[in-house]
Amino acid sequence: MFVRTPRLTLRPGWPEDAAAITQAIAHEEVAFKLARLPWPYEERHAAEWLARAPQPGEVTLTILAHEGPVPRLVGGVGIHPDEHGHELGYWLTPSAWGRGYATEAARAMLGVARYAMGLKRLNSGHFMDNPASGRVLTKLGFRRVGVAPRHCMSLGVDKPCAEMTLDLAEEDPRDTTLMAA
Q1: Beta bridge partners of 125
Q2: Are 109 and 119 in contact (CB under 8 A)?
Q3: Which of 23, 26, 56, 136 is 20 to 30 A off residue 75, Cα-Cα?
Q4: Which candidate, 97, 91, 75, places its Cα nearest to that of 124?
């Protein structure tokens, strides 16, 4: 599946992306804000992740920004089954922060969740020490339903996490996703 937005291309990760993914994600300021990322992150982790088969009901895409003549891998976004349905997750490399890419990529994934996957609800969350991610989720229409501890693999500790949900039953008039499978 490929998804195109005005500034981004979301596409599956390819084996040759391992070095670019490692360069983009292997920053403490990224790793310590994610629940399921090993630390220190090495290229072998990216290669293993790229080689694994997706779970049923999972869509995971890399984020490429069209900032110049050659698109640059700046992050990842995905929808994964969880114990309460499906969860939206995303990350960006620090040099791509503050440009609206997370909101743009996640909004495109809401279109995937609604139209390609037929989901009626989506969950997400953010560690409380990552308010920028909370602002992205709020812009997308997620509402907080609680705070609970969640394990941060990179730090090896539980951290407080805002739990959020979004009702996908109503179409979002801002959803302008263009897709091709």
Answers
A1: 163
A2: no
A3: 56
A4: 91
Here the tokens at position 172 are: 């979002």
Which 3 state secondary structure label does DSSP give 69?
Answer: coil
Structure tokens at 71: 């698109």
- What tens digit of pLDDT does each residue of 69-102 get? 999 999 999 999 988 899 999 999 999 999 999 9
Helix residue ranges per DSSP H, the chain: 18-25, 28-31, 43-51, 101-111, 131-139
Helix-, strand-, coil-residue percentages of the chain, each rounded to 5: 30, 35, 35
Residue 119 identity (one-letter amino acid): L
114 Cβ partners below 8 Å, 6+ apart? Answer: 168, 171, 172, 175
Kindly give, in sequence order, each residue whose CB lies less than 8 Å from that of residue 181, ignoring residues fewer than 6 positions away.
1, 2, 116
